[in-house]
Amino acid sequence: LADDTDANSNGSSGNESNGPESRGASQRSSHSSSSGNGKDSALLETTESSKSTNSQSPSPPSSSIAYSLLSASSEQDNPSTSGCSSEQSARARTQKELMTALRELKLRLPPERRGKGRSGTLATLQYALACVKQVQANQEYYQQWSLEEGEPCAMDMSTYTLEELEHITSEYTLRNQDTFSVAVSFLTGCIVYISEQAGVLLRCKRDVFRGARFSELLAPQDVGVFYGSTAPSRLPTWGAGTSAGSGTKDFTQEKSVFCRIRGGPDRDSGPRYQPFRLTPYVTKIRVSEGAAAQPCCLLIAERIHSGYEAPRIPPDKRIFTTRHTPSCLFQDVDERAAPLLGYLPQDLLGAPVLLFLHPEDRPLMLAIHKKILQLAGQPFDHSPIRFCARNGEYVTMDTSWAGFVHPWSRKVAFVLGRHKVRTAPLNEDVFTPPAPSPALSLDSDIQELSEQIHRLLLQPVHSP
Questions:
Q1: Is 378 among the domain residues?
Q2: Which region ranges are annotated with the description Disordered (predicted)?
């Protein structure tokens, strides 16, 4: 257990257990951590699980893994000078507390991350480690305001009371029943205001949010994305785009961030995260009469629905674009892909393109890149390709491709793809977590094909 935690904490010390069980766990955890890429998609999670179960070293039960940590801690807490009986008693007590803590942690694990046996214990510890990093990041993030007070965005802001804020934001939240507004203090990270629609959309009482840290409501893998998109100096001020006559705001010029927010528990699977598009602004809010105004991040949150469910995206509008490197790694994903595939943009960035394609369609990518080279990057249409959505089912897409040729090196710098969904998945809710089952993995075929494409694009491009 200790070695599993160390292997997934990127260099933190603590390899104190030296028994054979600990060494076996260390080998397996190292193998598992090298195979995963931290994405919150079913494909990548099942990849980690399958590679872990295929390890050659024996797989002890979770209690044996926990016992390795117990042995290390009890040796430090109970020196050899104490009696044998006291050591055994302390060890049994520590083991009981450890297993109780593990059971409690597993109850708080998101349903899509749950597993059985050792994989479940490892997933629980990885999730707990992510939460610890999230808390540490909170303390660093909310110091940004004091460091950036001199920035222009902090100098010219209107101050609102909670009543004024509710009146102003209701103009937007009442217009769209899938939208709510929330204000988060830059000084504490706590929610100072949230609209009534939040309780309906997230299926919990409004009082649950008061005083809570907003980042604790986010899926751990989305916290870093949220922080990176809401630095105070980069946000527009609330009211900057408001027309004095109509009082309407133009959202098209604002940059949104996509995050999953934890809602109320389901009957069977516990808490479930729902995808939202967050549009952030910076403003000042006076919580009570006589209180000092505090800088806040005001978020307009709009829930994202599957593009195949009502209100459906029209078939002729089911289009999105992608950009990937010569190594076939996603470099940019159009936000329009979220309701069509079920992935948020950050789920795909840096992931192998071939991993998400149907195994029978992967060889087509080699032919596509050969044609990109032959046409010197000029756009062309290609036959349909099947892409795996987040719910584990495939959508069929008509694709068009083009390459950007660097003017100096005459090599393809990146590849652009335009995709139009032709056939929707059988399960139209693309955001549904897939049932645990053997799925795609980063096998040798994908790596070999990616290397072939990369070597191909190292060649200089000649005019067609």
A1: yes
A2: 1-94
